[in-house]
Amino acid sequence: EYRGMVKHTGGCHCGAVRFEVWASADLHVFNCNCSICTKKQNRHFIVPASRFKLLKGADNLTTYTFNTHRAQHTFCKTCGVQSFYTPRSNPDGYGIAPHCLDDGTVQTIITEDINGKEWEKAVKEHKTIRDMSKP
Q1: What is the largest distance, in Å, between two alpha-carbon atoms of the chain?
Q2: Which of 15, 85, 108, 110 stands 20 to 30 A from 31 (CA)?
Q3: Is residue 80 part of a domain?
């Protein structure tokens, strides 16, 4: 359906939340050092909202926000796993946790560190992050 992309499926630990996402088989994953990403070990790749579909579990999600309340940290009420969320950098898309994808569709993962401790500066200086959620 999406040229040059594969359909990945994934979800939380207990299986209450399931999703599909169209993305490259070669993932560009961000490793952020902001306070919440450090505590959660949140590594994620960004996709446009149009390439993400929640298959089940909407009623089993809860959301945590703080500071600007732009990032929507969604997680499963049962097992506590955040398999995706709405990042502050890309509120029109989703940040997907690659470790929550089912096996078999990821070829490679390239990890890029981002200085979330200086979030405004890091996002302003980054050349492509804001465009990652554009279709």
Answers
A1: 38
A2: 15
A3: yes
Q: Is residue 1 part of a domain?
A: no
User: pTM of this prediction?
Assistant: 0.90
The C-alpha atoms of residue 71 and residue 69 are separated, in whole angstroms, by 6
Can you tell me the distance from the alpha carbon of 27 to that of 109, in angstroms, rounded to the nearest whole number? 5
d(Cα 18, Cα 75) in Å, to the nearest integer? 12
Q: What distance in Å separates the CA atoms of residue 37 and residue 29, rounded to the nearest whole number?
A: 13
Structural domain includes residue 17 = yes
* pLDDT single digits (tens) 33-79: 989 989 989 899 999 999 999 999 999 999 999 988 888 999 999 99
Residue range of the domain that includes 106: 6-126
Classify 93 as helix, strand or coil: strand
* pLDDT for 116 beyond 70: yes
Residue 122, domain CATH: 2.170.150.70
3-10 mean pLDDT:
95
